Amino acid sequence: MVDNFNKLIIFVLCINVLVILVQAQSRAEGPALAITLLSQTPTPVEPGQVVHLRFQIQNNGQEIPDDVVIHLRERYPFTLYGSPADKNIGILRAGSDTVIVEYDLKVDEKAVGKRTEIELEARYAGVTKIFDNDEFMIDVRTQQPLLYLKEINVDPLQITPGGTGTVTVVLQNTGPALLKDIHMKMELDGTTIPFAPYQSSSLQVLSQLGPTFQKALTFSLITTPEATPGLYKIPVTISYNDERANTTVLKDIVAITVGEAPQIRPYIKKTTLLAPESQGKVTIELANAGNGDVKLTELTILPSESYQLISPSNYFYIGDIDADDTETEEISLYAQDVEKVTLPIKISYYDANNKKFDQETTLTLPLYSSSDLKKFGLVESGSTGMWVIVLILIGGSYFAYRKYKKRKK
Questions:
Q1: Domains 30-140 and 264-375 belong to one CATH topology
Q2: How far, rounded to the nearest angstrom, does the alpha carbon of residue 345 sit from its chain's CA centroid?
Q3: What angle do CA 69, 72, 78 make, to 5 degrees?
Q4: Which CATH class is domain 147-258?
Q5: What is the pLDDT of residues 110-120, one digit of tens each?
Q6: pLDDT in tens, 325-334
Q7: CATH (one of 2.60.40.10, 2.130.10.150, 2.30.30.240, 3.40.1160.10) for 264-375
Q8: DSSP 132-198
Q9: pTM above 0.85?
Q10: d(CA 273, CA 333)
């Protein structure tokens, strides 16, 4: 019993000695300030935003008899926003006395995303203690990086079946941060896509693209010979990394038109209008000499001083003309006293991609004199006609004479 009591007395004495030693050590070292960043709102903070910071100031040492002033050092990209740099928190007593200090900081709009340090000073009793050893790191993150297809150029505008062309895509970095490892791929594997890479790859790579910069990537393509004219939407995939090595994948569409300009060739197929100051019919034929069909074809006969239109209308609706096919229209004209008829016409039509074409041209119809007509055998010889007239006259005279003789009898 006595032994246990003695042990208890010794334990209590040891505790008292330990407390005295700790207090003596505290008095020897003086105040022991500790500052902790409690919160950052918002986190992360973006350039141009205001961030609210809450710090805890704690005295783990001897009481500080003077007021303690906490000073925030401004450094890029932070500036104080609506609050002073100095905050007087009064006297900090001994024994883990704590105070909360708050600051609002504005982040520069052009700041680059990264963890950036905030520096604080504690001033008291002629002493300045600096906290700048990566103790308060603020997470600044730039806006979501944005890479987009600024411009798409296809040369030629329509790629012919079996033909080649280039697609140039301009990529622009609209964000404030550097983008790296940019990969752009044209998805040409689909069975409905009549394109293939031509002397190049369907994948283009950029090592990096700086903020606000743009870069053109060119793809060379060839069209299958049996490709049907029309508009084709080519899927593209773009992937890139931001400054934090985060990968972003984008999906987009590049539109390419397959087709070729129609070749409508008008000409005069036949005519009965051969001589000046005469009337006749003229057959105009429109031939589709291209590889693609045309539709909604219209033919308009334009005025000219060399003829007068006898047909009731100068407008004719032709409709569709298939590739390697023809359509005709017949008109009636009266030729003036000229050596040839100049026949201006206008043709309007649409190709397979609904693109409208207007085509104006002038057809020429030569006219011949009566001697040339006889010479070329375009009319009967004049001697035969003369003999017919003579025979008619002789016959008429004979019948007139017989009739006269009957009257005299």
A1: yes
A2: 39
A3: 165
A4: mainly beta
A5: 887 778 899 99
A6: 999 999 999 9
A7: 2.60.40.10
A8: -SS-SEEEE-PSPP-EEEEEEEEESSEEPTT-EEEEEEEEEE-SSS-EEEEEEEE----TT--EEE-
A9: no
A10: 8
